[in-house]
Amino acid sequence: MNFDALLNPGVLIFLIPILAVTGWIVTVIAKHRERMAMIEHGIDPDTRTPVSAPLPQNSAMRR
Length: 63
Description:
Layout: H1 9-40
């Protein structure tokens, strides 16, 4: 297969932005689906730390 036609600057001017916008849309949709799945499972997606994150260990408490 010959891809020389795709390397033409006239084609690249249109191809690169189309691929960039398509990649951005896919990323936004994936993040939205992940957020909706978290809400369906009862997890607040706006929390900064995950619920299952271990608590920090204080060296003064570990005698």
